[in-house]
Protein backbone atom coordinates (compact mmCIF):
# COMPACT_ATOMS: atom_id res chain seq x y z
CA UNK A 1 0.00 0.00 0.00
CA UNK A 2 1.30 3.44 -0.98
CA UNK A 3 0.04 6.78 0.27
CA UNK A 4 0.64 9.79 -1.96
CA UNK A 5 0.36 13.43 -0.96
CA UNK A 6 0.66 16.18 -3.56
CA UNK A 7 1.60 19.77 -2.87
CA UNK A 8 2.69 22.89 -4.72
CA UNK A 9 -0.42 23.79 -6.66
CA UNK A 10 -1.86 27.28 -6.78
CA UNK A 11 -2.74 30.27 -8.91
CA UNK A 12 -0.16 31.49 -11.41
CA UNK A 13 -0.20 33.92 -14.32
CA UNK A 14 0.28 32.72 -17.89
CA UNK A 15 3.96 32.23 -18.59
CA UNK A 16 4.70 31.53 -14.95
CA UNK A 17 6.09 28.45 -13.23
CA UNK A 18 5.06 26.03 -10.52
CA UNK A 19 6.72 23.00 -9.00
CA UNK A 20 4.51 20.16 -7.82
CA UNK A 21 5.72 17.59 -5.33
CA UNK A 22 4.34 14.18 -4.47
CA UNK A 23 5.53 12.51 -1.30
CA UNK A 24 5.09 8.76 -1.02
CA UNK A 25 4.91 6.64 2.11
CA UNK A 26 3.89 3.18 3.18
CA UNK A 27 5.99 1.13 0.81
CA UNK A 28 9.35 0.98 -0.85
CA UNK A 29 9.29 3.82 -3.36
CA UNK A 30 12.01 2.99 -5.85
CA UNK A 31 10.36 0.08 -7.73
CA UNK A 32 7.32 2.13 -8.68
CA UNK A 33 6.87 3.97 -11.92
CA UNK A 34 5.55 7.40 -11.01
CA UNK A 35 3.36 9.72 -12.99
CA UNK A 36 1.44 12.96 -13.05
CA UNK A 37 -2.04 13.14 -14.51
CA UNK A 38 -4.48 16.01 -14.72
CA UNK A 39 -8.19 16.51 -15.03
CA UNK A 40 -9.80 19.73 -16.18
CA UNK A 41 -13.49 20.47 -15.52
CA UNK A 42 -15.70 18.47 -17.86
CA UNK A 43 -12.78 16.49 -19.26
CA UNK A 44 -11.31 13.07 -18.70
CA UNK A 45 -8.18 12.55 -16.68
CA UNK A 46 -5.14 12.62 -18.95
CA UNK A 47 -1.50 11.65 -18.64
CA UNK A 48 0.94 14.53 -18.21
CA UNK A 49 4.27 12.78 -17.58
CA UNK A 50 5.69 9.54 -16.25
CA UNK A 51 9.06 8.46 -14.93
CA UNK A 52 10.10 4.83 -14.69
CA UNK A 53 12.00 3.37 -11.78
CA UNK A 54 15.09 3.49 -13.98
CA UNK A 55 14.55 7.16 -14.78
CA UNK A 56 13.12 7.00 -18.30
CA UNK A 57 10.57 9.75 -18.85
CA UNK A 58 7.54 10.18 -21.05
CA UNK A 59 5.51 13.35 -21.70
CA UNK A 60 2.23 14.32 -23.25
CA UNK A 61 2.81 16.27 -26.46
CA UNK A 62 1.03 19.28 -24.97
CA UNK A 63 3.67 19.70 -22.23
CA UNK A 64 6.88 18.61 -23.96
CA UNK A 65 9.58 21.22 -23.59
CA UNK A 66 7.70 23.00 -20.79
CA UNK A 67 7.30 20.40 -18.03
CA UNK A 68 9.95 18.21 -16.42
CA UNK A 69 9.29 15.20 -14.24
CA UNK A 70 11.93 13.97 -11.81
CA UNK A 71 12.21 11.73 -8.79
CA UNK A 72 14.32 11.54 -5.67
CA UNK A 73 14.21 7.97 -4.38
CA UNK A 74 16.08 8.94 -1.21
CA UNK A 75 13.24 11.33 -0.35
CA UNK A 76 10.42 9.14 -1.72
CA UNK A 77 9.30 12.10 -3.78
CA UNK A 78 8.45 12.82 -7.40
CA UNK A 79 8.36 16.34 -8.83
CA UNK A 80 6.78 18.11 -11.75
CA UNK A 81 8.45 21.35 -12.77
CA UNK A 82 6.02 23.32 -14.90
CA UNK A 83 7.28 26.29 -16.89
CA UNK A 84 5.66 28.58 -19.46
CA UNK A 85 2.27 27.73 -18.07
CA UNK A 86 -0.80 28.31 -20.20
CA UNK A 87 -4.47 28.73 -19.24
CA UNK A 88 -5.15 25.31 -20.76
CA UNK A 89 -2.87 23.77 -18.13
CA UNK A 90 -5.52 24.61 -15.54
CA UNK A 91 -6.61 21.36 -13.90
CA UNK A 92 -6.42 19.21 -10.82
CA UNK A 93 -3.08 17.41 -10.94
CA UNK A 94 -2.86 13.89 -9.54
CA UNK A 95 0.17 11.84 -8.61
CA UNK A 96 0.18 8.14 -9.53
CA UNK A 97 2.31 5.22 -8.40
CA UNK A 98 2.28 2.17 -10.67
CA UNK A 99 3.81 -1.23 -10.06
CA UNK A 100 3.59 -4.46 -12.06
CA UNK A 101 4.42 -7.76 -10.38
CA UNK A 102 3.95 -10.69 -12.70
CA UNK A 103 0.44 -10.38 -14.11
CA UNK A 104 -0.79 -8.09 -11.34
CA UNK A 105 -0.76 -4.32 -11.62
CA UNK A 106 -1.09 -1.91 -8.72
CA UNK A 107 -2.08 1.73 -8.99
CA UNK A 108 -2.25 4.32 -6.23
CA UNK A 109 -3.43 7.92 -6.47
CA UNK A 110 -3.04 11.05 -4.46
CA UNK A 111 -5.89 13.40 -3.61
CA UNK A 112 -4.90 15.96 -6.22
CA UNK A 113 -3.70 19.55 -6.18
CA UNK A 114 -5.34 22.41 -8.06
CA UNK A 115 -3.34 24.36 -10.62
CA UNK A 116 -4.98 27.48 -12.01
CA UNK A 117 -3.33 29.52 -14.75
CA UNK A 118 -5.04 32.86 -15.14
CA UNK A 119 -4.30 36.55 -15.37
Task: Walk me through what this model shows.
- With about 120 residues, this protein is mainly β.
- Helices cover about 0% and strands about 55% of the residues.
- The protein contains no helices and eleven strands.
- Strands 2, 4, 5, 6, 9, 10 and 11 form a seven-stranded mixed beta sheet that branches.
- The model has no long low-confidence stretch (mean pLDDT about 95).
Strand content: over 45%
Total number of strands: 11
The number of helical elements comes to 0
Q: Helix/strand/pairing class, anyone?
A: mainly beta
Radius of gyration: 14 Å
Distance between the termini: 40 Å
Report the major sheet. Answer: 7 strands, mixed
Oligomeric organization of the protein chains: single chain
Amino acid sequence: QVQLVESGGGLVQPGGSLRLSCAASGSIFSPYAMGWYRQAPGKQRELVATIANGGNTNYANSVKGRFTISRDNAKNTVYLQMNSLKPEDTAVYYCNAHLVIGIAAYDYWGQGTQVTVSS
